[in-house]
Design a protein that fits this description.
Order of helices and strands: HEEEEEEEEEEHE
CATH superfamily: PCu(A)C copper chaperone
Oligomer: single chain
Strand content: 35-45%
Largest sheet: 11 strands, mixed
Number of domains: 1
CATH topology: Immunoglobulin-like
Structural class: mainly beta
Shape: globular
Radius of gyration: 20 Å
């Protein structure tokens, strides 16, 4: 009986070590830069986060989730595409990373922060943690920027909280009709 308890204790210790190690996996082939979050527009409860993920090797790897607990517990990966002359935003379950720069920006792939209850103002900084398909995580410190700073030239009026004709895939819609448009 004593040997069985020792073996069980040893197995439990090995299993616990494996679980702790899996939670702290770092991926050195991925670098994060240009981390930013768009300021929260008055009246809005959603905004976006943008960054560049540089992958330095050819090993298959996908971005599968993100978390920004200081702002919200409801974070999704999104893409925006033009369909029938409308900009459509849809949630994606993963983003397969290619070797080189993978740019998350307005009007394309981005991280969506939903159910934001407190103001997120330009100049503040928040940690954005990305989770990858291999179990690794990477964190960057994102600077909150203004709508104008994050809106590429030629995309006037395109910002989370200000697009009136935005639809989401799977029948979801974001009602922006009561949100104020900031001066550009």
């Amino acid at each position: 009986m004593k040997k069985l308890l020792q073996k069980t204790a040893l197995f439990s210790a090995v299993l616990m070590t494996a679980c702790v190690s899996a939670e702290n996996v770092q991926n050195n082939s991925v670098e994060l830069s240009n981390c930013a979050i768009q300021e929260l527009i008055p009246g809005a409860q959603a905004t976006g986060s943008f960054l560049t993920i540089t992958k330095n090797d050819d090993t298959p790897l996908s971005l599968v989730a993100a978390k920004i607990p200081a702002i919200t517990d409801h974070v999704e990966l999104h893409e925006m595409i033009m369909k029938d002359n409308k900009m459509i935003m849809s949630e994606i379950k993963e983003y397969p990373l290619k070797k080189g720069d993978n740019i998350f920006k307005k009007g394309g792939y981005h991280i969506m922060l939903l159910d934001v209850a407190k103001p997120v103002k330009a100049g503040e900084k928040y940690d954005v943690t990305l989770m990858f398909s291999d179990g690794s995580e990477k964190t960057c410190n994102a600077l909150v920027k203004t709508v104008k700073e994050l809106t590429p030239k030629g995309m006037k009026g395109m910002h989370h909280g200000g697009m009136k004709k935005m639809e989401m895939k799977d029948g979801m819609k974001m009602d922006h009709s009561k949100m104020k448009m900031p001066a550009q």
